[in-house]
Amino acid sequence: MSSAQPLQATPLSPRTQVTLSVDCMGGDHGPAVTLPACKAFLDRHPEASLVLVGSADALAPAAAWPRTTLRTATEVVTMYDPVEVALRRKRDSSMRVAIAALKADDGGVPAAHACVSAGNTGALMAVARYVLKTLEDIDRPAIATVMPNRKGGFTTVLDLGANVDCTPEHLLQFAEMGAALVSAVSGIDEPSVGLLNIGEEAIKGSETIKRAGELLRAAHQAGQLNFHGNVEGNDIFLGTTDIVVCDGFVGNVLLKTSEGLASMLSDFIKQEFTRNPLTKLAALAAMPVLNRFKRRVDPRGYNGAALLGLRGLVFKSHGSADAYAFEQALGRAYDAARNRLLERVQDRIAAPSTGTAGPSALAA
Amino acid sequence: MSSAQPLQATPLSPRTQVTLSVDCMGGDHGPAVTLPACKAFLDRHPEASLVLVGSADALAPAAAWPRTTLRTATEVVTMYDPVEVALRRKRDSSMRVAIAALKADDGGVPAAHACVSAGNTGALMAVARYVLKTLEDIDRPAIATVMPNRKGGFTTVLDLGANVDCTPEHLLQFAEMGAALVSAVSGIDEPSVGLLNIGEEAIKGSETIKRAGELLRAAHQAGQLNFHGNVEGNDIFLGTTDIVVCDGFVGNVLLKTSEGLASMLSDFIKQEFTRNPLTKLAALAAMPVLNRFKRRVDPRGYNGAALLGLRGLVFKSHGSADAYAFEQALGRAYDAARNRLLERVQDRIAAPSTGTAGPSALAA
């Protein structure tokens, strides 16, 4: 951290009681995955409560669970439902009811602190935006996820697809929100931010990127942000910075490219080891080592993307998550809520040097 | 191929004699790598000739080689030279002289058909553009490379960094040039083209991408291009299409992200297998299998990116290429020249349905 001024302190004390609302019907597997995950999560988090949302039938097994409230919803947003269907037709979807549970005025039960769904991303963002609205001064909510890096940690990348065209101001807000997320979830007080570009030099990139770099440098000089400078695609895996900021188009492409490459390489390894009896014998010897490798890069271990910039915490689990992966998403939401991510985002966005963004014209 | 009309025939007969000009000083290793590669290439290609460019000292070992012309150049563009230095100060660089060897009026020796350099990409593109100029109707040259896919083949991706801001017309030209490249180098007559986007639906993406999709669909309907539709990042590795088109910013990010991820995963595997005596024993058993895997995804095997849209064929080798990798780049350039890539690009660009691009204002 080379800034002359210190970054702002983070005086927020952790919440002792956390309630998560869970869309139990979302994802490829629905309650078959979400319920066991919720049960395991409850067992491991004695200070957590859950609001489970789904059809009465689906939730029946959870009727006698401790620290659990059941809330029925008659509809389910499928993985293929267009945004309009999720938004306008399925008004009693488990997704929507789970998100609405974050609002303080929602019935007699206290509001939940964070919501988790494995439902389709576009619908989740749209419904969350509609139900919760965006934070003041936030034009565009963003989606942040983590990718493993060589340092043994994770690089947080945002935006991952919520916004295809971004202004420099949006990119600055993504940086601020990403910093709030990393400080809340990973406990890093002054996470470093890199601006994804096609070269490390400040003169590289499009006009939008160059101007974003100026805004980020100004925020750094004002002591609001630990801005490292430009980074390139490979820096995500080097762990050069804690956070990498990019527009949603680029973020989505790099995420899907990475998933595609990792999956191809893993299949190639499998194919080579199952080629013939001899290679299968080698596989037997190599299995413990390969399993260790697999665990190390297992995407289930860091499942749970954050929707940032909304008046409520929403986490998105991978649609194909199994119970273990879904439990990790619950854990991430729990950590975020416990460490007051929402307040951290608000604090950062309200800070003077970052109040340059336009009105939240798209919030409605 | 679902188009009603057939694609244009490719009546170009292969060239029997091919001459490559080689910047022997470029790359991280210079002549120590390029000369052995050239020698091996000559041995394997009895109908090829080389024009070797470099300092007199460096080229001395090649003095008695068959089918080889030596041409001295007094300067070298380093990997760190800014474009301006390569362009304006080092006028007698091996890079520039090698590119100039493509011009018919260049001294008494017949013009070379393609040029190969491992020098820095920015400088290579700038010098090539300055010396050769762009083809008529081409605003922006592009850089195309291949990435391995699950089908056992390769996906050609462009642009990879020459152009940060692209218009829909540029993306259409990239598609045409990519199709010419794949048909020349891989022998696929009607290579399929995918437009990189963040969803398969035609309504996804930025305005530029949507409009590019319209142009590509029109070219498909006119029988000029085998346009598949939108593809996503993972489709590169699935091999959904032969060609994936994107702007240079996105292309550069996805290339560097892929390189970074592949390199991290390979290092993780190495780390796990060298962790302790037991894992080292397992490595011994697994070694033949792992080596087979390594060969399968070895980037050296498909080294050699094409600079497309210029009035001459220029191929860029990875700067860190070893002799094997550099020879592959020579081989790609050879295949392209032999199969008349330049004429193929010209034919495609001149075709009526794709003559929609603006004047070549940036050609000078």
Molecular structure report:
Chains A, B: Keywords: Acyltransferase, Cytoplasm, Lipid biosynthesis, Lipid metabolism, Phospholipid biosynthesis, Phospholipid metabolism, Transferase. Chains A, B: Belongs to the PlsX family. Chains A, B: Its EC number is 2.3.1.274. Chains A, B: It catalyses: a fatty acyl-[ACP] + phosphate = an acyl phosphate + holo-[ACP]. Chains A, B: One of its GO terms (cellular component) is cytoplasm. The structure is a homodimer of 364-residue chains. With 364 residues, chain A is α/β, with parallel strands linked by helices. Chain A has one domain: Isopropylmalate Dehydrogenase (3-Layer(aba) Sandwich). Helix content of chain A is 43%, strand content 15%. Chain A has 12 helices and 11 strands. An 11-stranded mixed β-sheet of chain A has the order 3-2-1-4-11-10-5-6-9-7-8, sandwiched between helices. In chain A, a hairpin with a 5-residue loop joins strand 5 and strand 6. In chain A, helix 1 packs across helix 11, helix 3 runs parallel beside helix 5 and helix 4 packs parallel to helix 5. The longest helix of chain A has 26 residues. The first copy, chain A, is globular. The two termini of chain A are 38 Å apart. The relative contact order of chain A is 0.18. The N terminus and C terminus of chain A are likely disordered. Chains A and B meet through helix 8, helix 9 and helix 10 of A and helix 8, helix 9 and helix 10 of B.
The CATH architecture of chain A can be given as: 3-Layer(aba) Sandwich
Largest β sheet strand count, sense and barrel closure of chain A: 11 strands, mixed
The helix-and-strand class of chain A reads: alpha/beta
Strand order of the largest sheet of chain A: 3-2-1-4-11-10-5-6-9-7-8
CATH C-level category of chain A: Alpha Beta
Radius of gyration of chain A: 21 Å
CATH superfamily of chain A: Isopropylmalate Dehydrogenase
Supply the number of helical segments of chain A.
12
Q: Please tell me the overall pLDDT of chain A.
A: 88
Any idea what the shape of chain A is?
globular
Instruction: Give the domain tally of chain A.
Output: 1
The greatest interface here is: A-B, 56 and 56 residues
How much of the sequence of chain A is in beta strands?
A: 15-25%
User: What is the CATH fold-level name of chain A?
Assistant: Isopropylmalate Dehydrogenase
